[in-house]
């Protein structure tokens, strides 16, 4: 990549982040469903078309880490250590994320959690992301195990592993909405994660070992 191309890419990323930041501020202040694309464009000092070029769907302005969320579990499987199973890798990374109170697993704070739960559109978009994440994980597991195209095992394993993450995310959101602090939630989720992943050990403990 040339210097000019690198500068152009950074400028585009900065514009994207600026638009997303302005949009999120408006969403938190007034609620997702009450803010228009035109108002976001005005707040970001860009044309309305610029907003839609970067974010074809309004929901993705609020959930701008959606692509990372979708690829997160598959990336963990691809990057797992030699001798490590997919389950062990996902459990290790999840527990580290709980300790760090990572926003990618749901530690987003009460205002953001309320913005999500108050909007049927955002709740629906999160479900779409979750389905896409499960499919991405299934592909990664199929590749990791050299599974045949008609082998259902990677899809079953992905459904189980993604299901654990889905349940834990819902618990984080529930506790956040109840007003618990990040430290309180992290303490509870550490134990819940050990239980949840432990329930899969008998079936997936030796699956997709690198």
Automatic annotation (TrEMBL):
It comes from Nocardia lasii. InterPro entries: Homeodomain-like_sf (IPR009057), HTH-type_TetR-like_transc_reg (IPR050109), HTH_TetR (IPR001647). Keywords: DNA-binding, Transcription, Transcription regulation. The keyword tRNA processing does not apply. Residues 13-73 form the HTH tetR-type domain. Pfam families: TetR_N. This is TetR/AcrR family transcriptional regulator. It comes from the Bacteria. Residues 36-55 bind DNA. Signal peptide: none annotated.
